[in-house]
Amino acid sequence: MDLNLITILLTYSFVQGFISAGYIYSMLKKPFLAIALASVSLLILVYLYESNGWFLDYPQLIWVFPPIWYCIGPAYYLFTRKYFGYKLRTLDILHLLPIVVFYIYLFPFYLLESDVRIAQYQQFWDTANYTVDIHHYFYQIHLLVYAFFSYRQLQSSEQKLKNITSNSSIISIDFVKRIILLLLVFCGVGLGYYISVDLKIIPPVGIYTPILYLALSLLIHLTTYYTWSDTNLAADETIAKYTASGLDESRLNEIVNEVNKYIGQEQVFKNPDLRLKDVSEALNIPSHHISQAINSQLSKTFFDLINEHRVKALKENINSEKFKNYTLVAVAEEFGFKSSSSFFRIFKKVTGLTPKEYLKSTQ
Fold first, then answer.
1. If you ran DSSP here, which 8-state letter would residue 205 be given?
2. 307 CA to centre of own chain
3. Distance, first Cα to last Cα, the chain
4. C-alpha distance from residue 53 to each of 47, 56, 270 (Å)
5. Residue 246 has pLDDT above 70, yes or no
6. 351 Cβ partners below 8 Å, 6+ apart?
7. CB 13 within 8 A of CB 41
8. pTM summary value
9. What's the rounded Cα separation, in Å, for the pair 64 and 110?
10. CB of 306 within 8 A of CB of 263?
């Protein structure tokens, strides 16, 4: 592959990464994923700065941005934690410690004159004597550790979701899985590249030099694709509420009993416009706790439960004197069904019979 083509690809990746980071931050409200993507994009820009010889014109920027490598792993990890509703802690500031340490380590270099900085930089990358710097292994292992803990966070949160809800749309978290997998793949490519150079399997020049940054660009492209194409991103607020709620089994059962008792005794199901929010306010129970309890304990949604109450009440009253001159649809409207089509569909779903078949069976 021609180096000019590689430069074009990486330039495109850099631009796309920053645009996507802005979109993710401003529109999707996922600041840590935006930071991760912006960091990766900035490192690609650093490669372009170095490979195109721009350091000769702007030596004051030599090795100013390499500590950003230590930002990527924590940003992805904190994105994963926040996606599942875990609040940030004061100790999370320690995730920045490697960045600070690396800047302290490089600080004496920043004080050097421009020509000395250029000379040391060129000597560092002298292919005749080049060996992989230990810091390259440090940041790849650092990234691998964070990718591992991100994956563990994903697994534990996914299991918790499966234990508390049967709603498959909520536990569809392929978006996060794919991003963490991309991170792990990149770690593998990076470590493989440096080990291969160290063992002299491949040279540190020519086509092999930009391999790491092409892998970074792939991370940008696929993260952008998954972010823009995933239809379940709006569900992460519900995911966060579920995983962070901390409700135990006994409390979930109590909520179900309270909701059932309230719906049955107050007959609020007769209101065709009844909302989860209405029941939440009446019982002074957060709506996401009600939704979680019904999902986990009954394997159904709030509206499934309301419709079952409607069908039950209708079956108990359909043969009463009060409704003997009513049509089936008119009776259904009395018990909260908004249309004939929804009534017939829900009645059959709950009972396995059409309303007419049910009436026939009771005669």
1. S
2. 32
3. 81
4. 10, 6, 74
5. no
6. 311, 315, 358
7. yes
8. 0.67
9. 8
10. yes
